[in-house]
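User: Before I run my own analysis I want an independent prediction to cross-check against. Here's the chain; please return only the structure tokens and, at the end, one sentence I can use as a sanity check.
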Amino acid sequence: MMTTRSGRKAKPAQSDSAGGVTVVVLEPHAVFFDGEQRTGTLHNVPADTAQQWIRHRWAERAGAHKAP
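Assistant: Structure tokens:
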């Protein structure tokens, strides 16, 4: 019998109190959010949008630590 392994599931992004998530857009990228190109820390981003940015490596969850 053959079995397949399921893909590793990403942790859901942390929600802000207003229902969105906080992400940090990674340089040299900018994302289109709230009517304009944005960089840096963004708050209240819809979870599905944040996950797409994270998947494309344009952003990371706020508070995620990178090894030097």
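Sanity check: The helical segments are 47-55.
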